[in-house]
Amino acid sequence: MDQQHHGKTDLSIELAKRIKGEIISCDSMQIYQDMQIGTAKPTVTEMQGIKHYLIDILPPNQRFSVSEYKIRAEEAIKEILQKGKKPIVVGGTGLYMDSLIKGIQYPDITIDEKYREELELLAEKKGLSLLYQKACAIDKEAMKTISPNDKKRIIRVLEIWKQTGKTKTELEIESRKQEIPYQYKMFGITMPREILYEKINQRVEKMVKLGLQEEVENLLVKYKEFPTAMQSLGYKETRAYLRGELNREEWIEMIKRETRRYAKRQLTWFRRNKEIIWLDGLKTKQENTNLILEEIGE
RNA sequence: GGCGCUAUAGCCAAGUGGUAAGGCACGAGUCUGCAAAACUCUGAUCCCCGGUUCAAAUCCGGGUGGCGCCU
Questions:
Q1: Domain coordinates of chain A in residue numbers?
Q2: φ, ψ (nearest 5 deg) of residue A279
Q3: Would you state the pLDDT for residue A6?
Q4: Closest nt to A32 (CA→C1')?
Q5: pLDDT tens-digit profile of A74-124?
Q6: Which positions of chain B lie under 7 Å from any protein Cβ?
Q7: Does the fold of domain A113-175 match that of domain A8-105+179-296?
Q8: Nearest residue to nucleotide B32 when comparing alpha carbons to its C1'?
Q9: ipTM of this predicted structure
C-alpha cells in the first residue's frame, strides 16, 4: 500500500481488523520520535489497538537509511507471521518499499561519514565535474544514468568503490540475487489531482492549527543535530520560518507547495510499478477494503 | 479632468533596432545505504491598432489596462 493524504491510515487499520493483520510503517520520517504533527503519524486512538511497527523507533538526531529499514521491516514481518497474523506494509516511501518487494540485499557496510564529507568539500572546492570524471572512470555503466549535476549519486559511486572495492553496478547485481520469500499484493490509492491537492492544502492548514510551529520549536531545543530528520517536509520550512527567513504566509504556502510536489513524485514512483492494483481514494474504506479482500482471496 | 510611469509565458523578470536570458510554479520523468531527499526534461514571438525601417519586443503616433502624482 502506498501514498499519503489519501486516507491510507484509515484503510490500513480497517484492513488489519478484517484480516487479523498488523501494520508495518513504510515511511522514512515517521520512524522518528518527537515528530508527530508534521509527519501526520497515526495517533493511538486512530490505531484502534492495531499494532504498528517502525514508528517512533529513533530520535531525530540519528541517521537512518534504507538498508536499516529493510532489516527492521523484515524482522517485523517475521514476528507478525510467527503470531499467525498478516503483515500489512503501509507507507509512501518508495525506496523503502522497493527494498522489500525487490528483495534487495544490502551488504553490511556503514557509511564513512568522513570520506563523504571529504568528497563534498572537494566538490565544492574543485568542482563537481572532477568527481564526476572519477566516478566515470570507476563505473562507466552506472554513470550512464547519473547526471553530472547529481552530487549525491556521484559521491555514492565513489564511496562504494572506496569501501568495498566494487563498483556500484557490481554491487547492485549481487544485491539482487535472492528471491523474496513472501507472497504479497500491492495496492495504491489515487484520486483526481485537483482533489488530492485540495486535501493536501487542508491537511497543511490543520497541521499549523495543531501546533506544527511549537513542535518544531521543541525539537530544536531538544536536539542539536538532524542528519536526516530535518529533510522532512514541513520541518525544514518551519525552521526557516522560525529563523525569520519566511513570513507566515510564505511558510504555509511553501509547505503546501512542497507537499503537492512530493505527492506528485510519489505518483511517478509508484506508477511505474505495474503490479500495483489501484484503488479509488474517493470510495469509502469499506468499499476499498472489500476490493482488497477480493484481490487477496480472503 | 491633467501630468508622469508602465504593459514580455500561470507568476517574478532580463532584453532599448537584427528574428525572445534567467528564476519559480505547472506537467512529464529518473531513482539500490541522506529518498518527505537529490537530479533530468518541457513552454512565449513580447497588450491592441497604425506608422518609420531592408529589419521593431525594442523608435514614433493613437487606443486600452495597471500604478503613482496633481487639481
A1: 8-105+179-296, 113-175
A2: -110, 150
A3: 67
A4: B36
A5: 999 999 999 999 999 999 999 999 999 999 999 998 888 999 999 999 998
A6: 25-40
A7: no
A8: A172
A9: 0.92
Give strand letter and number of the nucleotide nearest A40 (CA to C1'): B36
**Closest-CA residue to A235 (of A226, A244, A224):** A226
Cell numbers describing residue A181? 520469500
The pLDDT value given to residue A5: 56
Can you tell me which residue has its alpha carbon closest to the C1' of nucleotide B34?
A228
Confidence check: pLDDT of A55 > 60? yes
Domain formed by A113-175, architecture: Orthogonal Bundle (1.10)
- Find which nucleotide's C1' atom is closest to A196's CA: B26
Q: How do strand A52-53 and strand A21-25 relate by DSSP bridges?
A: parallel
Residue A216, exposed/middle/buried by CB under 10 A (0-12, 13-18, 19+)? buried
What burial letters (b/e) apply to A61-82, b meaning 16+ CB within 10 Å? Answer: bbebbbbbbbebbbebbeebee
Gap from A70 CA to B5 C1', in Å? Answer: 63
The mean pLDDT value for A209-215 works out to: 97
Mean pLDDT estimate for chain A: 94
Alpha helix stretches (DSSP H) within A245-284: 248-271
Question: Which fold is adopted by the domain A8-105+179-296?
Answer: Rossmann fold (3.40.50)
